Recover the amino acids of this structure.
């Protein structure tokens, strides 16, 4: 089994990473051009979001063929070259397996539509009249989660877009097909897998209306999910690779099971959950704006960090991905304290117990783009919700300001490589607009600066590799009642490391009384350790990392 505890994973959204052939869309050859940059940053694995043939209704999460490359991203030879060249630099490629659903363009679904019973059993079809939805469940992208096929007189389930039909994992043939996909890529030298919404694969035996919610309580961490995952891992022997499951609306007890390390039938290396990224959803509604609830954030980190440690599970640590707004725009500052807040947020995540993920552009503190026109958006969820918000009576201006804060497109803007044309992303006008600040926030500038956000990420990655207490130590939280400060202590038999982060843009006091003289500062985003009358004071968005001497 591979030791992934001191590894750092970098997420690439290929469409927006680097365009090599001047069509305005990023591609595999573009990634190849940037391998030395990624090596310099110090990451170990590159997770690529889907690059398989797809109608791109959901930017590749609607897969039409799991074992080929979409021509817009390149060819199979490009992928093989990327695997080889990454390997030479000691970096592994991880692919994104979207196994909860396929595109409705997938040959399996097409055969189902043509009336082949065998393939209808690959999906979740229900007989019914056109005006009788099988259940009242809602799609995660808005609207009902069922679509009627008049020619068949049946409904099919789609938890996401109408072109993303849910697979029927209760059918052993489906499970066998998906194992073949894994083996195909493993054979090519893929070093790890990320499994998209994998905790949604097992649907309940009986489908019923949900009068308390949108239906998710019936299928999240569903009845056979652990059994199916165990089977998949066992039969493909991916227990020896790095695997991460994306868990939607999940539970701690299930995540412990998904990522339990020392058990006979292992499931995955680690899990993503999203609870810490819902602390600015008003009443749980992503489309209702609210300031982040910092106490809730602290509580969630504590609950998950302590719970996973106790259960011997393993967390994937992250702030950003292709579905989330940029973290500096969200929990930090885009103005005066842009750099300080980007660094503080980075340290708070990287030094916890788990494996850190960096989403492209996060390492240079990229921000939300603040689009002002609906025509600038590309994401299916954002476009659907824009209409829903208008139907709810919001003005266009209000709906646009909600999207500017919440849209998934906030993180999907092209990577800012330089202050040159199109931010050095492409010679052609890009498939979506860049953030205007690319002239100021870009890789070229930060790569050389010792004080840059980029250099800080490099230092964090180094630290994990050099200090076993970061990768393997236990964790304990401090400052639990202090709403301004997130703080924790990492410990092993040789060392104690303390991390204090000021989550606010004002000066604040650390309540904890520690023998400060016995610690030395090893990393921070300000000079020295500021003390007033014996108390440690944190400056705006300050982070200090101290090590026992
Ligand atoms: O996302 C799953 C998911 O539920 C979300 O993060 C989703 O974007 C959010 O709930 C909407 O508010 C995964 C992928 O990361 C995402 O890009 C895909 O669109 C989705 O699955 C479907 O494959």
């Amino acid at each position: 089994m591979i030791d992934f505890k001191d590894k750092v994973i970098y997420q690439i959204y290929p469409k927006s990473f680097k365009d090599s052939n001047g069509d305005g869309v990023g591609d595999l050859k573009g990634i190849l051009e940037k391998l030395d940059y990624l090596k310099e940053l110090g990451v170990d694995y590159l997770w690529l979001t889907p690059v398989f043939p797809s109608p791109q209704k959901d930017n590749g999460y609607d897969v039409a063929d799991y074992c080929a490359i979409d021509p817009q991203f390149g060819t199979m030879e490009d992928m093989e070259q990327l695997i080889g060249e990454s390997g030479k630099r000691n970096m592994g490629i991880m692919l994104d397996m979207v196994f909860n659903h396929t595109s409705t363009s997938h040959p399996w679904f097409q055969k189902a539509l043509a009336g082949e019973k065998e393939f209808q059993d690959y999906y979740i079809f229900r007989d019914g009249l056109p005006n009788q939805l099988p259940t009242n469940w809602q799609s995660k992208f808005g609207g009902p989660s069922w679509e009627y096929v008049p020619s068949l007189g049946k409904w099919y389930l789609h938890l996401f877009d109408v072109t993303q039909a849910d697979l029927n994992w209760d059918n052993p043939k489906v499970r066998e097909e998906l194992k073949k996909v894994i083996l195909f890529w493993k054979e090519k030298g893929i070093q790890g897998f990320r499994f998209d919404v994998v905790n949604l694969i097992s649907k309940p035996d009986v489908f019923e209306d949900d009068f308390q919610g949108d239906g998710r309580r019936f299928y999240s961490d569903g009845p056979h999910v652990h059994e199916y995952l165990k089977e998949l891992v066992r039969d493909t022997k991916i227990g020896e690779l790095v695997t991460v499951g994306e868990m939607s609306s999940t539970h701690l007890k299930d995540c412990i099971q998904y990522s339990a390390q020392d058990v006979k039938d292992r499931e995955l290396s680690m899990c993503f959950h999203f609870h810490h990224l819902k602390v600015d959803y008003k009443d749980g509604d992503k489309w209702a704006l609210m300031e982040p609830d910092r106490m809730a954030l602290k509580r969630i980190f504590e609950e998950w960090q302590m719970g996973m440690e106790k259960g011997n599970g393993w967390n994937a640590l992250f702030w950003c991905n292709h579905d989330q707004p940029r973290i500096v725009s969200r929990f930090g500052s885009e103005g005066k304290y842009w750099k300080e807040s980007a660094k503080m947020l980075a340290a708070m995540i990287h030094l916890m117990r788990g494996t850190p993920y960096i989403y492209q552009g996060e390492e240079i503190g990229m921000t939300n783009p603040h689009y002002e026109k609906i025509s600038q958006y590309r994401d299916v969820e954002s476009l659907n919700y824009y209409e829903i918000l208008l139907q709810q009576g919001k003005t266009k201006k209000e709906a646009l300001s909600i999207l500017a804060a919440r849209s998934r497109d906030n993180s999907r803007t092209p990577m800012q490589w330089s202050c040159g044309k199109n931010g050095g992303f492409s010679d052609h006008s890009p498939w979506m607009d860049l953030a205007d600040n690319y002239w100021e926030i870009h890789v070229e500038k930060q790569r050389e600066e010792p004080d840059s956000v980029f250099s800080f990420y490099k230092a964090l990655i180094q630290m994990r590799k050099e200090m076993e207490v970061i990768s393997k130590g236990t964790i304990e939280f401090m400052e639990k009642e202090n709403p301004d400060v997130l703080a924790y202590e990492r410990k092993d038999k040789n060392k104690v490391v303390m991390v204090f982060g000021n989550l606010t843009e004002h000066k604040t006091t650390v309540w904890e009384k520690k023998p400060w003289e016995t610690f030395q500062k090893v990393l921070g985003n300000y000079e020295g350790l500021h003390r007033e009358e014996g108390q440690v004071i944190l400056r705006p968005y300050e982070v200090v990392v101290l090590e026992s001497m």
User: Anything to note?
Assistant: The chain has four domains: 9-103+172-362, 107-166, 373-406, 472-548.
